[in-house]
Amino acid sequence: MTAAEHGLHPPQYNWSHNGMFDTFDHASIRRGFQVYREVCAACHSLDRVAWRTLIAVSHTNSEVRAMAEEFEYDDEPDDQGNPRKRPGKLADYIPGPYANEQAARAANQGALPPDLSLIVKARHGACDYIFSLLTGYPDEAPAGVVLPPGGNYNPYFPATTSQMAKDVTTFLNWAAEPEHDERKRLGLKALIIVSGLYLVSVWVKKFKWTPVKHRKITFTPPKK
Amino acid sequence: MLSEDYSTIYNLVFKRNSVFVGSVFATAFAFQGFFDYGVTSWYEAHNKGKLWKDVKLKLGDAGEDEDDDE
Amino acid sequence: MSGYIKNVVSKTAPHVGQINPTTVKKWTPILGLWGGAALFGVFTFTEHWPLFQQTFFQKIPYFGDYWVHTLDPEDSPQ
Predict the structure, then answer these.
(1) What pLDDT does residue A150 have?
(2) How far is A93 from chain C (nearest CA, A)?
(3) Rounded CA gap, A49 and A36, in Å?
(4) Interface touch C63/B33, C-beta < 8 Å
(5) DSSP character string of A80-135
């Protein structure tokens, strides 16, 4: 495949979570969620992320409750069997912008804006790819983006396109790999233990082999 | 402790298999606790500023009002 | 040659199979030590289990606080 066919390779950026022992920048996850909410959620769903998973990652319990309650979800029918709605709760999943795939395609010239829950894991280049895609549009801002009117997040002033792209990419990486921080912590423990045991086994092997390694074999020719 | 005879250690820990196995588990229990505490402390120090607990502290300063514009 | 006993006079101790007071006296402390070893074994494998953390580990003097997990209600997923 030519570069034009499978797209340009994105450059490798210094993500703060790139290293073997580096966690996500949770402040970036927080800002990134806001970018998703204000920009991307108009077309892209995030079906696999439940509101409660944001708690203690990027938002407090009260903040997430407030955000969830802004949305309506289908409730059990009332006593007469009529359908009704209720405000969102922590156990619910983040709602998507369209009721179904057909509505999504109709609103986007037949193309289906993909769900973003796992997008970072689902594309070659992961974070680098997503970031480059978002900042690669030839216009000043990614298509369809409306920068928040005068509002800026803490403490980055002003919120540049590249900053927003970085934050939303970090947020999407968290959505795709919520176990990331704990995985690296456990990985560190595993590496230390396994390396330690390996070194011990090297010593034990040498110890057990000393008689073999230091034996002397002699040949005494028979006397004529 | 370092001045103790090897035979004291032997008699106290290694002679009876029940005591030996028991001390292996007791050491494992203590080691697990200390190891996890140590690694987690290092990990959190290495990632200082990025963790949720650090971000949460800063929330109070900047104000959370921006979150609710929908 | 009068009054000497020809045969050994023996009594059988109370027993159930091989288990008699002598063997019990011998093995009880050893089994006790094994019970202690088994207990430590259970502790090693249940270290992350909240039931055991609350009943046993938190009560360890000086180090017990390591197992006390307080969660800020703002971080609670409920």
Answers:
(1) 40
(2) 14
(3) 13
(4) yes
(5) T---EEEE--TTSBPPPSSSSHHHHHHHTTT--PPP-TTTTTTSTTHHHHHHHHHH
Q: Which residue has the tokens 């971080």?
A: C75
- Tell me which fold the domain B1-65 belongs to: 1.20.5
Domain that holds residue C38: 24-69
By Cβ distance, the residue of C40, C63, C66 closest to B22 is C40
Q: In this structure, what are the phi and psi dihedrals at residue A85, rounded to the nearest 5 degrees? A: -115, 160
Query: Would you say residue C37 lies in a domain?
Result: yes
What are the pLDDT digits (tens) for C33-65? 999 999 999 999 999 999 999 998 888 888 888
Answer yes or no: is C74 within a domain: no
Rounded (10°) angle between helices B17-46 and C21-45: 10
How many angstroms separate the CA atoms of C41 and C45, rounded? 7
Angstrom distance (rounded) from CA B24 to CA B18: 10
Full-model pTM = 0.82
A43 is in an annotated binding site: yes
Q: ipTM score of the complex?
A: 0.81
For A26-142+151-178, which CATH superfamily applies?
Cytochrome c-like domain (1.10.760.10)
Helix H or strand E encompassing C45: helix C21-45
